[in-house]
Amino acid sequence: MTTGRTAVTIVLAAGEGTRMRSASPKVLHPVAGQSLLSHVLAAVPNSSALAVVVGPDHDAVAREVRRVRPQASMFVQRERLGTAHAVLAARGAIAAGADDLLIAFGDTPLISAATFERLREALKNGAALAVLGFRAADPTGYGRLVVENNHLVAIREQDDAGPAECAISLCNAGVMAFDGSKALAILEKIGNANSKGEYYLTDAVAIVRDLGLEAVVIETSEDEVRGINTKAQLAEAERVMQTRLRKAALDAGVTMIAPETVFLSTDTTFGNDVTIEPFVVIGPGVSIADGAVIHSFTHIVHSSIGRNALVGPFARLRPGTSLGEGAKIGNFVEAKASTLDAGVKVNHLSYIGDTHVGAHANIGAGTITCNYDGYGKHKTEIGTGAFVGTNSSLVAPVKIGSGAYIGSGSVITRDVPDDAMAVERGQQINREGGAKRYRELKTRNKAPKSGS
Ligand code: UD1
Ligand code: CA
User: Fold this and answer.
1) pTM to 2 decimals?
2) Which of 164, 242, 265, 301 could share a disulfide with 33, CB 3.0–4.6 Å?
3) CA-CA distance, 308 to 166, in Å (whole number)?
4) Residue 285 exposed, middle or buried by CB count within 10 Å (0-12, 13-18, 19+)
5) Crossing angle of helices 59-68/36-43, nearest 10°?
6) Is 12 in the pocket of ligand 1 (CB under 6 A)?
7) Pair 158, 143: CB distance under 8 Å
8) Closest ligand 1 atom, CA of 54?
9) Ligand 2 centre from 400 Cα, in Å?
10) Would residue 61 count as lying in a domain?
11) Alpha carbon of 236 to those of 93, 227, 242, 247, 294: distances in Å?
12) Per-residue pLDDT tens over the stretch 186-214
C-alpha cells in the first residue's frame, strides 16, 4: 500500500499528432466514445494532485481537462521541445513537493489505476525512478529499455539506438514515477544532445544511474500501454478497450450471443438479466435496467432504459431519452429528449422528440412529433393511456389529454382534452359503382396492348 504518501501526476497532452492526419488534437480522438485524454485522466489515482500540460491554443484540450477533472491545474508548453521539456512546463506542480511524481502520456488510453500504484510501490521500496515497461510484438518506434545485470541503465530512443539496442523488445511505455524529492534535480540535468535535438524524458534513467540511485522497470502487458500515434493504432486501442468492456459486461451477467459485434462505453451500466443482441452500438451515458432487451441494429447514447423495456431492432435513442418499466420501442423508431413512462408502446416507424408520454399510451406506426418549426424546439405532452392512431403528426407545442384518442392520419395542432376523440382529415366519400365506371371509361378509350 502506498497510503500515507502524497502524489502529483503530470499528464503530457501537448502533442501535435500530425500522424493522425486530423485537424483535431491527437489526445481528443475517441476510444469507446471518450477522448484518449479522458481515459488517462480517469486512471490517475484519485488521491493524486493532477497537472496537465497542454499545447498553446489548445482550448479544446483545456476544456476537456476541465470537464473530466475540474480540479486539475494546467500548464502550457509553448514550444514542443520534447517530453522532458513538457514535464518541466509543469515545474510549479513538481515544486509543490509531493512524495511521488507520476508522469503519464495523454495518448496511452488503456492505462489502469492499478499500474500507477505498482510504480509507486517501487518508490516506496527505495527506487528513485520506476519506469513502466512492456514486451512489444513490434518494438519499432518505442524507446528500448537497456538492462544490465538486472539493473535498468538507460532508455534508448529508436532514432539513437544501434542495431543491438534495436533488437531489444522490452520497451518504454511512457509512464514513470519519480521520487518527488529528487525529481526536479534529475529533470533539470536532461539535455538535448540526440538526433532530434529534443529534451527526452527517457534520459532520466541514465542520470539516475550516474547519481548512484536506483531505476527499476515494472512490466505490464502491451495492450495496457499502446501509445496512439496513428489512426491504425487508434483502431487497435478501440479493439482492446471493447474486448475489456465486453468481458466486464459478460462477467456482470449481460447476455450477448455475439459480443464481438456489440460496442459499449466505459460508463455503460447494466442491471441483472440484460440481453443485448448482435450489432448494437451503445455510446456514452447509457444505463440499462434489469431484464431489458436491446434488439439488433440499435444505436443508443445518453439514455436510460427501464426495467424489462424492449428496444429495437433498428431503434435510435438520442440524448435525453428515458424509458420506463416495460416500455417498448420498436423498429425504425427514433426518440430524443423524451420521457416515455411505464408500458408505453411506440412499435414502428416513429419520431418522438421533446415529448413526455404518460404510462401505457400507445403511439401508432408512423407518428411524428413535429417539434421543430425552423426556429425553435417545442414540447409535446401525451397523457396516460392515450391512443395515437397511425400516421399522425402532432405539431408542438401540443397536449394530448389522458385517455384521448387520435384518429389515424390526423395533423393535430390544437390541444386535445382528456378522453376526447380527435380526428383531423378530409371526409371519406364512397361513390357506388364508381370504380366499375372508371374501368369501363378507360378500356373504351384504349385497346389493350397486344403481345405482352
Ligand atoms: C515516447 C517515448 C518512448 C516511448 C513512447 C511510448 C520519449 C522521448 N519517448 O515516444 O520512449 O516508448 O513514448 O508511447 O519520451 N508531448 C508533449 N510535448 C512534447 C513532446 C511530447 O506534451 O514536446 C506529449 C505528447 O502529447 C504525447 C507524449 O508526450 O502524449 C509522448 O510524445 P510522443 O511524441 O507521442 O512520443 P513517442 O515518440 O511516442
Ligand atoms: Ca506516442
Assistant:
1) 0.90
2) 265
3) 57
4) middle
5) 40
6) yes
7) yes
8) 22
9) 57
10) yes
11) 33, 10, 10, 17, 26
12) 999 999 999 999 999 999 999 999 999 99
Q: Which CATH number goes with the domain that contains 235?
A: 2.160.10.10
Sheet holding 275-276, edge to edge: 275-276, 293-294, 310-311, 328-331, 345-348, 362-363, 387-388, 405-406, 421-422
Distance between terminal CA atoms of the chain?
88
Residues 341 and 249 placed together within one structural domain of the fold: yes
Residues 194, 131 within the same domain: yes
Q: 71-80: per-residue pLDDT in tens?
A: 999 999 999 9
Cell matching residue 385: 393511456
Where a domain ends, among 225, 252, 272?
225
* 60 shares its domain with 123: yes
Q: Look up residue 150 and give its three cell numbers.
A: 538486472
3-state secondary structure of 30: strand
Atom of ligand 1 nearest to the CA of 80: 23
The answer to the question of residue 57 being in a domain is yes
3-state helix, strand, coil in the chain (%, to 5): 25, 30, 45
Domain boundaries, position 290: 231-422
In a domain, 444, yes or no: no
Q: Which residues, listed in sequence order, are joined to residue 7 by a DSSP beta bridge?
A: 100
Pocket test for ligand 1, best of 9, 41, 61, 83 (most atoms within 8 A of CB): 83
The sign one gets for the Cα dihedral 195, 201, 204, 206 is negative
Same domain membership, residue 278 and residue 199: no
Residue 2 has pLDDT above 70, yes or no: no
Residues 176 and 119 sit within 8 Å (Cβ to Cβ): yes
Query: Per DSSP, which regions of 157-297 are E strands?
Result: 170-179, 215-220, 269-270, 275-276, 281-282, 286-288, 293-294
Q: Coil, helix or strand for 188?
A: helix
Cα(426) to centroid of ligand 2, in Å? 67
